[in-house]
Amino acid sequence: MTQLDAAHRIAAGGGIPNPLPAEIYCHSLTDPSILGPALQESGAHTLTLFGLHVPHRLTHGADPDALRAELLAAATRSLDAVLAEPLADCLYLALDGAPCIEARTTADLERSLGMVGGDIFHGGLDWPWADAAELETPAQRWGVETAHDRILMCGSGARRGGAVSGIGGHNAAMAARELLRR
């Protein structure tokens, strides 16, 4: 917890935390079809690291290539701190000898995916617990309310669920069921 608190302070001050808090996914373990047959047969895998506490404002006015390099270095340091061998020793190399690794900033995500601020949660996260005064409608009870009565939030921005959990979709369906029963 002290590392997360320190990371938050550093990020709030405009820096990149060290270690960089992160989530890591190895999608190819559960879905090898994301790789071509030759890579599957070779035993290759993908690794996706989602760096946390990296504010979008760091991209404003920054040299994109320099920022990507700095973020990649921070992510690599964090991974190397917990891996048995350095990440660099595990990477495939492209035909030109460059390591097969990529860093994307929130500005990259905003540009390529249309996500405002590159925010995969579609906005700032909110404490998931409800205040009893906020529980008048099914949408409020399930944490899927929006400014429009007939529109429910069912994605990452849902109050009591998000990311890739599917909880937002579940809760929107439950709120819709309640509304239909009325």
What's the structural blueprint in terms of helices and strands?
Blueprint: H1 2-12, E1 22-25, H2 27-30, H3 37-42, E2 48-51, H4 64-80, H5 106-113, H6 138-142, H7 167-181
Antiparallel strand pairs: 1-2
State the gist of this model.
By secondary structure, this protein is mainly α. Helix content is 36%, strand content 4%.
What this model shows, in words?
With 182 residues, this protein is mainly α. The chain has two domains: 2-118, no CATH class; 132-181, no CATH class. Helices cover 36% and strands 4% of the residues. The protein has seven helices and two strands. It has helices at 2-12, 27-30, 37-42, 64-80, 106-113, 138-142, 167-181, and strands at 22-25, 48-51. Strands 1-2 form a two-stranded antiparallel ribbon. The model has no long low-confidence stretch (mean pLDDT 89).
